[in-house]
Amino acid sequence: MSGTAPASQTDSTERGLGLASWYTAGRSDGFGDRLLMFDNSGAASLELLRFRPGLAAEPGFEDLLRQRVQRLSTFKHPSFSAVRTVDHLDDGEGLALVSNHIAGKRLSELLDARRTPAGLHPAFVSWLVQQITPLVASLQAHG
Q1: Which pLDDT score is estimated for 134?
Q2: How far apart, in whole angstroms, are the C-alpha atoms of residue 107 and residue 92?
């Protein structure tokens, strides 16, 4: 995946997203490319995860993804994005997960091996565990 996305405006009113501009935040990971979507109405920004084609093509992946999204549809926490939809993008651009965008640093950014020196400082690891533990506990409590 190149990490680039169309810069033109896309009319996605049939999905209830309004007139939006797509742009890449420049982040790609093992799942795929992450893009931000802005709505001209001032509504919350959306984040789109466009799955890698090889991952999306795995037998059963889409069905399991939709099942997990359904199971987590009632889970609400300010540190977790609310998923809006799982959809196939126009023009064969692949399978995508659309969610509300939450500002802040992603865990994958904090642990990016390209940006961090070899090994992590024990104080950072301790802080990270303290931040993540209650979040994972909330998610686990939801089932």
Answers
A1: 92
A2: 30
Non-local CB neighbours of 45 within 8 Å, separated by 6+ positions: 36, 37, 38, 39, 100, 101
**What length is written for the chain?**
143
SS3 1: coil
Instruction: Please list, in sequence order, all residues whose beta carbon lies within 8 angstroms of the beta carbon of residue 69, skipping any fewer than 6 positions away.
Output: 83, 86, 97
Question: Per residue in 46-81, pLDDT tens?
Answer: 888 899 999 999 999 999 999 999 988 888 888 888
On whether the CB atoms of residues 99 and 65 are closer than 8 A, the answer is: no
Using CA atoms, how far apart are residues 55 and 137, in angstroms rounded to an integer? 28
If you average pLDDT over every residue of the chain, what do you get?
77
